[in-house]
Amino acid sequence: MALMLRIGLTGGIAAGKSTVAARWRELGAVHIDYDALARRVVEPGGEALPRIAEVFGADALNPDGTLNRPWIADHIFGRGAEPGARERLDAIEHPLIYDEARWLEANAVVGAERSETDTPGSLIVVHDVPLLAEVINTIPFDFDHIVTVEAPVDVRVERMVTDRGMTREQAQDRILHQSSEEDRRAIADVVIDATRPLPDMLAQADALYRVWALSMR
To answer: Would the pTM of this model clear 0.85, i.e. be above it?
Structure first.
């Protein structure tokens, strides 16, 4: 049977989490990207879209039936967002996202078992969950280690404005609607400082991966 180490990866928006995830993927980790799963569950034809329209109204969808992302972003994260709106959206999306994550992880385990030769297979599965601190008590996974990638708020705002085309107000709203750095640090056993030079940050990620891989031998 394949040995598996399950890692929870989190971090504030635009802190550098994706850079760390990409590095571990290059090193051989199975990467389960919850942002990608969140996009997948609201694709046309899925069960999320009609439920979103039922809860939030027809304006939540575009005329072609796809999700009206700017409208949703404004009504979930905007300054005038209705209280409880995000919780209602999460109640629709999260169970579907978790089902997708279970399926991906199970398939990775099966793949590792099929590739076994004379020695047991092993794999490191990284659950890349931006909001892990918020869902830690409800997410249906237990993690062997939790890593958070952190950078100061002003650095993250500047990155969102420069790299993602957000206004400063939009960037600040996104940060306000996420868990705090203190909350993320409280659930993590490792903190990666994303303000360090990139080679240093990646060296820390590499060292963690080596330790995890050795622990399964």
So the answer is: yes
